[in-house]
Amino acid sequence: MSTANVTEQRFAKMRPVPSRGASAPAAHDLPPGPRIPSLLQSIGLLRFRHRFVPALHRLYGDVFSIRIMPEGRHLVVFNRPEHVKEIFAGDPEVFHAGKGNAILGPVMGEHSLLLVDSTQHKRARKLLMPAFNGQALRGYEELVTRLSKAEVERWQEGQPFESLDRMNALTLEVILQVVFGVTDEARLAELRPLVNRTVNIPPLVFLGWGYPRLQKYGPWRRTVENQIELDRVIFGEIAERRRATDLADRSDVLSRLLQVRDEADQGLTDEELRDQLVTLLLAGHETTATALAWALHELGKDPVQEAKARDAASAGDTDHLEAVLKESMRLHPVIPMVVRHLMAPATIGGIDLPQGANVAASIILAHESEASHPDHARFRPERFLEGEVASNTWIPFGGGVRRCIGAGFSLMEGVAVLREVLSAYDVAVPSGTTETAKVRNITSVPRHGAKIVVTRRR
Predict the structure, then answer these.
(1) Domains in the chain: how many in total?
(2) What residue numbers bound the domain in which 221 lies?
(3) Is the pTM of this model over 0.85?
(4) How many whole angstroms separate alpha carbon 4 and alpha carbon 224?
(5) What CATH number is associated with residue 302?
(6) Residue ranges of the chain with pLDDT lower than 50?
(7) Contact between 289 and 441 (Cβ < 8 Å)
(8) Where would I find the H helices in 358-451?
(9) pLDDT at residue 457, as a whole number
(10) Which of 172, 99, 163, 134 is nearest to 448 (CA)?
């Protein structure tokens, strides 16, 4: 079968649709929420989330419902720590994360760790875990540090630039070399634009995936065509790596995954490998880049915090640098929420919810809670060093058995990058610079690219 057919079949199979075998929950069975058409609510959630979700919180309180596309889907939004804990601790046979992430299906594929549930999820996570344990992370750190050093050495003093662009370029290089194990410049040059076009899918295209006819036109068709090309390159890389005779000597994630086996002595198929690689690519590229861009922007705005971070970089204080990264993730959530689909009725926070409802732990609301994070609008990394941040109040990586498998890698990478930047430069923001969040695909990024200006440390 041609790559084009494989890709198009995946888009057809993974099209987000209301759950089969169960009627859609009725609005009167759910907490209150806005009555505007579901299309407008979906646009509000995808495109204007940083205003829309807090506005609903003010109107309806700690728990409210949103009707989303395709028709028949409902999202019940929670944010209090005790409610978040119940969602994360929910029976994984009832609280399905895969169906809650269905909008990502056409790109990530049916085998993606983010989209499978129950025994499939247990198997996939067990197979992927060795590539992200502590020993593996220590092996990746040297390459991340080398790539970071090469990147920051190219920066020009005194010239304002968008840190988001540079962080995206750097984290993409990390993903391609650490995860894919690609070092050949010709193959890297082929992959970069394909990956960038995948990452930069606009929200309107996500909404359109529920309507197959749209895939013949405009941005929806271009998305499919780009995916066909990306799949062609990835499957080619997998086939080439399978023929390699030195897999045991390679440390990249793809080479490690080619060697894993389950209880039945079965390895990952080409399709499984493709789906997991794309998942790691999308989940670990722009998210980390955005957190780093926000961190540099916040440090540049605050000379006191910038000096503390510089001192930490010089002293090798990874705890402080990690706190800087975590605080940027708290203040500027990259992902808006963590979603579960109810396969059976469940009770959260004393509220009985029907089968078929989707429940969400809102990262936006949890992170801006004044009760959980006093002086929440202030950038203060010390809160992570002084024991102020309680469980289930900082949730960028989700939680429970579905906590992001790449969380340790993301923090390791972020610390390594900050260490190289702050060891080489003083960081500031250009005079008059302001920054807000905008939505790009499913992530929120700095609207103006988080501009900074650097001065080499003497």
Answers:
(1) 1
(2) 3-456
(3) yes
(4) 9
(5) 1.10.630.10
(6) 19-21
(7) no
(8) 363-367, 407-424
(9) 86
(10) 163
